[in-house]
Sequence to fold (350 residues):
Amino acid sequence: MDEGKRMLAETRAIWATAICFLAGAVIGTVALWGNPRPIAGDGSVGIPAALIAGAIAAASFVVSTFLHRRGETKPMPRWQAAVSDLSAIALTIAFACVTAMGVLLAGEILGVGLQGLELPAIGGGIVTGVAAAVAGRLTFTAGIGLDTGDLAGLLFSYLVIGTLFAMLTAADPRWWELNFSQLGIGAGSWAFNGTLVVAGLLVATVGSYIGRDLHRILGDEALGRVGWVVALWAATGIALACVGLFPIHRILVAHNIAALATLVLFVAAAAVTTIVVPGRPAPLLLTTAVVGVLIAVAVILAEPFGLYSVTVLEAIVVGLGLLWMTTLVRVLAVLTPEQSRPSTRATLRR
Fold:
């Protein structure tokens, strides 16, 4: 993108920020009209503000995508355009959910620090407008150009935000004595379970972008291998979403099967992706080996020796998995050309 196009994109982003603020403030004021409301808790500003800001953020991403990437799929065959369109739809849903969860988490934190504060309708509308402006600016920028590294960062941020919110609103304050699945039990279980469902959607979308990058590097000759990579990441995302769809207190067997499937499929997807990436990059191979050893050590220390709880083990495994994924997307960023690569195949089959 040349200097003129970058300036135009920045100007559009500023306008998008202003429009998102005005839309959020007006809609928020109307939705919150009536008696003053607290920042967090029952009947608070938080939930309406989160829903409004999430919807505006999603709309901002859609508008930006049409403005800056319209026609990108025109030279592609139908199957490739369908994959691209499905990824865009998944991202729109994910951006709405990430924004809503971020607003809810911010509301809970402010509710602790500003106990007793109540906002009138106009005040709540302004808060909603600020949240919509920040989220709208970020999603509008994402619509200009979103790469695999950005998606991996979004996945990491969403997992942190969703888990923290679930911790703050957990029905059982001593959930950590067992495992993270305990956050999916009780009145506030929707926060943790919903986080897992959307995280699964993001994992599948990251896999789609990984496949896009590999296709840009390797071309149509590698479509079979790339297809396996995309399929395994999609399966991993579905399994993770099922962990949230089957809460541990309702469908224990299905929950445990989904959790185990997520771990196995993630390992399989990581292994196949490492094999398909051309040139066997040293940073990726080194990180894969180190992460594998650290996970094995963490499991040994947790199970036979009992040095820490299952909750700590789960946190270590997830953190190491995200570390590996960060290395993967950074390596792909070095190898992947910026320009789109339409396939010359009318169908996926030879």
